[in-house]
Amino acid sequence: LSDIEVEYKEVQGHLYHMKYPLQDGSGFITVATTRPETMLGDTAVAVHPEDDRYKNFIGKTIVLPITGREIPIIADDYVEKEFGSGAVKITPAHDINDYNIGIKHKLDTINIFNDNGTLNESAEIYIGEDRFDVRKKISKELREKGFMVKEEDYTNKVGFSERTEAVIEPKLSLQWFMNMKEMAKPALDIVMNDTVQFYPSNVKNTYRHWMENVKDWNISRQLWWGQQIPAYYFGDGKDDFVVSETKEEALKLARGKTKKSDLKAEDLRQDNDVLDTWFSSWLWPISVFDGIRNP
């Protein structure tokens, strides 16, 4: 699903303020969230490094309510001191900003959702139940066990699928990306040195801004039709794959990587993902006019 296909709408919901007890028994820290069910995937609580209220908390450990799993308190200037309690739960698998904080602080990533929006075994509780049902149940359990500080009406923006009207749930998945930094540099250089010129000339600055801030391009899609990603797996490990133009060449590379000369073509499994339609259509004029091999 492309970001462009997500429509954000204002939805009336609730902001849940929950108590996370400190592991040393010296008190608790309050966090606020609109999605209490995602606490089962929390791997840290973050506070602003200059927030005087929490300076003595940084580096301590808290105990996640209900499950009892222990997670650290970290400092990050991403946190807004004025919002909510000034302490933020970090769920790297289910929020893009939390994901980036997770990478920065080397946090664990716990994916608690199945593809159909139910909770999986990593959640530890409410396994197999729908996310929205769990939201009601877990907030009730938090109230009953004394972890809920307060609930207040809250209007926030929620992402919906442009096509299906389903609420979009951020979730980690394995995808292929094009490293755009290398590709953007020559496209920027040739404009900055005026080999290619724009009219009007002020558009040059806009173009430079685009090229200098380009993000890696997610080129893989989970569709039934398209040009299959040329990646071949020979095992179950994270790095057990090779990328090659043909299966024959992939087999040679896989044999070299595994040091197994008896590896067979049927031992390789091509990735099921296909290229993003924009990416494959982008290849079309290159293929037709062959300007790369024959300038």
Account of the protein in words:
There is one protein chain. The protein has 295 residues and is of the alpha+beta class. It has helices at 96-105, 131-144, 180-192, 203-212, 247-258, 277-289, and strands at 6-21, 28-33, 44-47, 61-63, 70-75, 87-90, 148-161, 177-178, 217-218, 220-221, 231-233, 241-243, 269-270, 274-275. α3 (180-192) packs antiparallel against α4. The chain contains 6 helices and 14 strands. The protein has a 4-stranded mixed β-sheet, with helices on one face. A 3-stranded antiparallel β-sheet has the order 2-1-7, with helices on one face. Strands 12-11-13 form a 3-stranded antiparallel β-sheet, covered by helices on one side.
Jot down its keywords.
295 residues, 6 helices, 14 strands, 23% strand, alpha+beta
User: How many beta strands in the DSSP annotation?
Assistant: 14
Q: What is the CA-based Rg, rounded?
A: 24 Å
Helix/strand order, N-terminal first: EEEEEEHHEEHHEEEEHEEH
Task: State the low-pLDDT regions, or none.
Answer: none
In DSSP terms (H or I, runs of 4 or more residues), the helix count works out at: 6
For the sheet with most strands, the description reads: 4 strands, mixed
Quick recap of the structure?
By secondary structure, this protein is of the alpha+beta class. The chain is about 25% helix and about 25% strand. A hairpin with a 7-residue loop joins strand 11 and strand 12 (about 240-245).
